[in-house]
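Dear all,

This email documents one entry for the complex benchmark we are building for the journal club exercise. For each entry we list the sequence lines for every component of the assembly. Then comes the predicted three-dimensional structure of the complex as a token string, followed by one or two observations. Please use this as the template for your own entries, and keep the labels exactly as they appear.
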Amino acid sequence: MQDIIQRSVVIQATKESIYDAIAHPERVVSWFPERVEGTYEKGEQPILDFGDDGRSRILIVDAVPCSYFAFRWVPGSGNFEGDVRSVQTTLVEFRIVEEATGRCTVTMTESGFASLPAEIATRCFEENAEGWDPMMRRLEMCLRTIEAGVS
Amino acid sequence: MTESRVFKALGDPLRLRIVQRLSSESHHTISTLSEDLGLTRQGARRQIQVLVDAQILRLQPVGRETRVTLDVSTLETAREWITSLERQWDQRLMALKTLVEATPTN
């Protein structure tokens, strides 16, 4: 059984623009949460607002311009808004590696599932079971809108 | 909820080794597992019981021995939870890719 989720995607863009989309609050809302509340910087605990799908406080643990961005949270788009340092969390890391000029691999790693205490894992599972589908639909709509805008 | 018990039960290096051992060789008893892992029979029994409680392992008495087998369906359920999280990250990364590639560079 795995403790880690790792996914990669190749993006035809510079590492600067990819990093901006992940690490800047006004850009990240275009693909991840609907809104960001609070200071979206290393060491801070902003809230990611997923609209109808709940709100989640994150702790930004590191931000290295153009190559690395990491935060801790209770996995899923659930409703944990307390102090992230006070509970068991998973670590979400984004690594950007430039493969060629204007082409990068972005790798997302989420780790720490095995260390989640039972009550949090249970709540995550219940929230996610209800929460995934609306979020997928929202993202699909977002993708379609962006695609329509490009073509 | 089964998933949370499964993840908690597997959140221990020794118990993870027991599960790995059983997934590569299916013929094991509490005695052979404790020998393999260098544990006392009592120590092995205690760790195995945590995995039995989470329905990851099944015990079956065979003569004077206790056979230990994996309950694959439980691991499958936990695996599905992880798969749903993976799917969500795939969707998010695809949204990130689409967004960044659609944005003209300065």
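Observations: Chain A has three helices and eight strands. The first strand of chain A starts at residue 4 and ends at 11.
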